């Protein structure tokens, strides 16, 4: 890939903090040739997409199942197209979907950067073992992306 070509970076993981916006702002400020994508981050929209589009379900299991499978279409296509997959694990909620995304990306041979607080290092040792970089802040993710794209260290 030429330095001037646009990189595709998929931002997977928790949806309850502003980490995606921090990365978006950092990428824009650095003028990096990156196209960012990710899952639908509105929890209600993501949960209800299946039944709103494909029809109501009586049981919560099938309601969730429809939504998860419909969201998986987006996730699979965007991870398949990604050059780098950033997987964020937050402290408050268990992100089983993020762990699944990391495993899917690893199976495809994608470059993975994990992002989490050091307190989660032990719990995520296998996921981190598949990653090429482990960051603790969104700013470190931006710096890592800047380095791998430009080959230069900033600041």
What does this molecule look like?
With 155 residues, this protein is α/β, with parallel strands linked by helices. The chain has a domain at 7-39 and 82-150: Rossmann fold. Helices cover 50% and strands 15% of the residues. It is built from 6 helices and 5 strands, in the order E-H-E-H-H-E-H-E-H-E-H. It has a 5-stranded parallel sheet, with helices on both faces. Helix 1 (19-30) runs parallel beside helix 6 and helix 2 (43-54) packs across helix 3. The radius of gyration is 16 Å and the shape is globular. The model has no long low-confidence stretch (mean pLDDT 94).
In terms of DSSP E residues, the strand content is: 15-25%
The number of helical runs is: 6
Approximate helicity band = 40-55%
- Lateral strand order in the biggest sheet: 2-1-3-4-5
Structural class: alpha/beta
Order of helices and strands: EHEHHEHEHEH
CATH architecture of the domain at 7-39 and 82-150: 3-Layer(aba) Sandwich
Number of distinct beta strands: 5
| Tertiary shape | globular
Biggest beta sheet attributes: 5 strands, parallel
Report the CATH topology name of the domain at 7-39 and 82-150. Rossmann fold
Are there runs of 5+ residues with pLDDT below 50, and where? none
Q: What's the CATH class of the domain at 7-39 and 82-150, please?
A: Alpha Beta
Mean pLDDT: 94
Q: Give the CA-CA distance, first to last residue.
A: 25 Å
> Rg from C-alpha positions?
16 Å
């Amino acid at each position: 890939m030429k330095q001037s070509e646009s990189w595709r970076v998929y931002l997977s993981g928790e949806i309850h903090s502003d980490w995606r916006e921090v990365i978006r702002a950092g990428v824009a400020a650095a003028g990096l040739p990156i196209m960012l994508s990710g899952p639908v981050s509105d929890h209600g929209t993501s949960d209800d997409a299946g039944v709103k589009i494909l029809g109501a379900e009586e049981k919560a299991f099938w309601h969730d199942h429809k939504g998860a499978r419909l969201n998986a279409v987006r996730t699979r296509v965007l991870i398949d197209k990604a050059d780098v997959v950033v997987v964020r694990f937050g402290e408050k909620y268990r992100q089983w979907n993020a762990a699944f995304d990391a495993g899917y990306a690893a199976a495809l041979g994608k470059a993975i950067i994990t992002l989490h607080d050091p307190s989660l290092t032990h719990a995520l040792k296998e996921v981190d073992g598949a990653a090429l970089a482990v960051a603790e802040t969104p700013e470190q993710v931006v710096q890592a992306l800047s380095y791998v794209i430009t080959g230069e260290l900033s600041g």
